[in-house]
Amino acid sequence: MSELNQNRASACRVCGAHLTAFMSFGRMPIANGFLKSEEIQSEYFFELAPAFCEPCGMFQLVEQPSPDKMFHGRYAFYSSTSRYMQVHFERFAQSVINGVLAGRADPFVVELGSNDGIMLRNFHACGVRHLGVEPSVNVAEVARGCGINTISAFFGRKLASHIEAEHGHADAILAANVMCHIPDLPGVADGVRRLLRPDGVFVFEDPYLGDMIAKTSYDQIYDEHVFIFSATSVKNAFAPHGLELVDVAPQKTHGGSMRYTLAPMDSRPATSAVDECLAREREQGLGRSETYVRFKQSCEASRARLMEMLNSLRREGRRVVGYGATSKSTTVTNYCGITPEHVEFISDTTPIKQGKLSPGAHIPVRPYDEFVRAFPDYALLFAWNHSDEIREKEQSFVAGGGRWIVYVPEVKVVS
Ligand code: TYD
Ligand code: ZN
User: Fold this and answer.
1) How far apart are CA 127 and CA 48, in angstroms?
2) Cα-based distances in Å from 26 to 97, 240, 331
3) How many whole angstroms separate alpha carbon 415 and alpha carbon 403?
């Protein structure tokens, strides 16, 4: 715990205003830090505490572990595990190809945090010049194996200049579930501005603050998500770097996301969706600190109800298994105090997670076959963002009397 106060920010990462956390989720491990039992002794913890910056509207973590603790050669998150996400990125890519790239000669697309190439493979298939920037070398290797041009590095001003010198300016820069990971947002914004053509666009999407507040989906808060964005905070954060918010589009992914399109200032008109979204955010109270006091109370109430349910099932001797060893589940298990006594194991299809223990709570992660082999009485749906896909797939679990425990937007049992 000697590292506990490291990297504690007392100033907003975007505007520099003074920051204080409005709540703490307590001592937290790395959300994707699945570990072997012999690694328990050296497991890393930090204090997970979010803050809201009133002057610029940015929701952020007060403290974040250093990037090399999260994104490295053993990064456990592979984007392509969900069929739904593959379709989502195919559509995302098509909208760029048929939109901003249409009619352009030899366009160039850069993706920040390109993971295993789930998005860029669609550009590659159409012969579009592309480059992925992915610091986690193991996932980048998978992309390269599929013929997708990928460099393993962290994006910022310097790398932007290098890419520009080698490949020229980009027609489109894309990022999905990545911008919210990068603490140096000003550095990335400057890099994007430098690399982008004057008529280019920067399109990124991330979990949306409005959804998180509305659904009490506090499990979006974990080490990697240093920011949870809103249209208001994105507009404010990028304007000083010469980038204007010109479009927003809600997405179903990750339990409620927003896609933001930014362009060099005054280079293209903003759609009416931007003003509409900003107005909705004012109505929802996303700019007011009382909203976050209420959010904290909702988190506490959710935790109390979930533990009441799990403790009562345990007393009744029911078998409960977790479904999906998501990053998000690390916040839930550690904040609520869920142990292997409550949840026998977590079923997950990702080979690198199997046979390991979940971070902090040390619940064993087992292959999906074990879930199917002997259905439990209850499955705690940690991968709730894939609910439609999973519940469709698991009809025989329910037909055999199995029940789902969900906790977003509220704790309940469903069949
Ligand atoms: P993901 O939804 O990306 O969540 P997070 O961003 O919080 O990590 O992760 C989904 C996890 O759930 C991943 O480890 C794969 C697993 N999973 C299954 O085991 N079965 C499934 O059918 C699906 C869709 C996911
Ligand atoms: Zn700020």
Assistant:
1) 43
2) 44, 34, 9
3) 5
Rounded distance, CA 72 to CA 152, Å?
10
CB-ligand 1 contact for 325 (6 Å cutoff) = yes
Q: Sign of dihedral through CA atoms 383, 384, 387, 389?
A: negative
Q: Which ligand is nearest to the CA of 60?
A: 2
Q: Which ligand 1 atom minimizes the distance to the CA of 83?
A: 24
Cβ–ligand 1 contact at 383 (below 6 Å): yes
Q: What are the contacts of 265-269 at 24+ separation with CB within 8 A?
A: 265/239, 267/198, 267/199, 268/199, 268/201
- What is the 363 CA–ligand 2 centroid distance (Å)? 37
pLDDT in tens, the chain (415 residues): 333 444 455 899 999 999 999 999 999 999 999 999 999 999 999 999 999 999 999 999 998 887 777 666 666 666 666 788 899 999 999 999 999 999 999 999 999 999 999 999 999 999 999 999 999 898 899 999 999 999 999 999 999 999 999 999 999 999 999 999 999 999 999 999 999 999 999 999 999 999 999 999 999 999 999 999 999 999 999 999 999 999 999 999 999 999 999 999 999 999 999 999 999 999 999 999 999 999 999 999 999 999 999 999 999 999 999 999 999 999 999 999 999 999 999 999 999 999 999 999 999 999 999 999 999 999 999 999 999 999 999 999 999 999 999 999 999 999 9
Cα separation, 92 vs 107, whole angstroms: 17
Q: Give the ligand 1 atom nearest the CA of 324.
A: 12
350 lines ligand 1 (CB under 6 A): yes
Q: Is the CB of 326 under 6 A from ligand 1?
A: yes
Map tokens 């659904």 to a residue.
215
Atom of ligand 1 nearest to the CA of 328: 7
Q: Maximum Cα–Cα distance for the chain, whole Å?
A: 67
Rounded Cα gap, residues 106 and 408, in angstroms: 45
Instruction: Compute how many other C-beta atoms are within 10 angstroms of the C-beta atom of residue 385.
Output: 26
